Structure formats: structure tokens, C-alpha cells
Amino acid sequence: MKNDQPLDPKEISDLDKVIHSPTRLKIMLVLMSVEEADFTFISNAAELTRGNLSANLSKLEETGYIKIEKKFIERVPKTIASITPAGKKALEEYSSTLGPILDSLRN
Amino acid sequence: MNDKITEQTQQLKKQYARTFHNDGLLDFFVGWALVSIGIYLLTGLMAFSFAGWMPIFLIAPLKKRFVIPRFGYAKFSTPAAIPRPILIGAGAVIIVGSLLITFIGGEGSRIPIVVGLLGLSLLFSLYRGLNRVTVYAIFIPVFFIVGLGLSILTPAVIILIGIVLMALGVYLFVTFLNKYPLDSEGEEGDHEK
What we know:
The complex is a heterodimer of chains A (107) and B (193).
Chain A: H1 9-13, H2 17-20, H3 22-33, E1 36-38, H4 39-46, H5 50-62, E2 66-73, E3 76-83, H6 85-106
Antiparallel strand pairs in A: 1-3, 2-3
Chain B: H1 3-20, H2 25-43, H3 46-53, H4 59-71, E1 74-75, H5 84-104, H6 110-128, H7 131-149, H8 155-179
């Protein structure tokens, strides 16, 4: 979309609704910034309560954007999440779609 | 990868790394090292020169005991600007070199201990990309060289600065513990699906 063109509502409809949630977007950005992280780290970094985080992690896992697995870190069992290639691609596409929309609103 | 996302995630990565290391442990042990060096310069007792850098080995266990259960575990990608084998080799050279100079050196054997200790900090900072460690690693050798050169650096001043840094470390540590209390739902952080 070019800045001098009117905003096409279809562009907004094309936004990935899974990522468009602020909570899930925060989680995706946190996981994008690390190779992997446990539940406590994501909770602190994204400033989310456990209940909120858990529900949204499940949603992201269902869509294949993140991978959740049990691992032993220093002999302590942890629930570890990491972003998948599909998740990275989805976040990139979301950014590519949202960027021009925001640009057209600014102009 | 989209440039804006890359830029954003790089910023977040740095922010998390800083928060993760803002527990005061580093400040406390730098202060500890200065106090030990100050006492060593004052008394000439070799034990204090070792006491200065030996606690560096306590940082990892303390992180595991206090920091990770509270702030959580994360693996940060590509932290090293220099390949790990080169860093380990350089670190070994610094340790062995400073110890050799200390044992075989005479009156002028003090500074290599300090520079060696801070050299290790600098290597660590290069590896982890931590700004505050870099500040310590650069500032303290300059502080020693200039201070000794101008003859204004007495053991008492070194000990005093060390005590201030230790106090800062304790303050940061207590703040960290209060900000990130242990979760009553368990350290593991269950993810119920």
C-alpha cells in the first residue's frame, strides 16, 4: 500500500488475528528475542499473569507459532517455549501488513 | 527478516540481558575484589590477592540459586562477538600470566593482578555484551593506572570504593529479590494445556 492511496479495509482483514492480540504479540516478541525461555521468564518479560500467559501460549502452540516442551535445565524440569520458523514467518508477515496500514494513518 | 522486527528484538534482547544481570552480584564481587586488593596492598598478604578473584566462581551457582528461579530461564542467542575458544584461551593466558608475574615478580607485581582481574571482566563483557561490565573493565584499570601514577590511590581509597560497590551490590540484590519474588505456584512454572 502506498501512502497516498486510501486505506484498504481488506489490508486490515489480512492481519493475522492470532498475533494481533496484544498479549500474544508480546509473547511472540519475547520469544523472538531469545532462543528459548521458560514460563517464568516469559511471564516477567512480557509482564503477564500466569493464567493469561498459559492460555495464550496454548493458542500460539495450537497454531504452530511456538513450540512448548519439557526440558531439564540444570537438572530442574522446566516448561520451555521457543518460536518456530512458522511463527517467525507469521510475525514478519504481520509486520509487513501492519506497517503500511500504520503509515497510511500517519499521512 | 524484517528490519524493524530485528531491531526490536535486538533491543529487547539487550534489555532482558541487562535485567537478568542487574542482580547486584557483579557489583558485589567487583567491590569484593577491590576490598581484597586494598587489603593485600595494605598487608602484603598474598591470600587477599587470591581472595579478590576466587569468588568469581560463585557467580554461576548464585545465579542458579537466586536469579533463575525468580526471573526465569532464557537462552540468549548469539551473545558472543568473539569465538568461545579464543575467549577461553585469552582468559587462561590472563590468569596464568598474572599469577606467574605475581609469584616471580617483586615490588612491581601488584598491578598485573588488578589488570588480570579486570581483563577477565572485559572478556566476559565482550562475550555477554554487558555494558556495565564493560564500564567496570575499562574504568577500573584506568582508575588504578592513573591513581597509582599520580600517587593518589592509597589502599584505604581502594577499600572504600570496594565497600561502596559491595553496598551497591547488596542494594541491587535486595531490590531484585523484592521485584522478582519466588512464585508460590512453583519454580517450574507449569503450563497447563
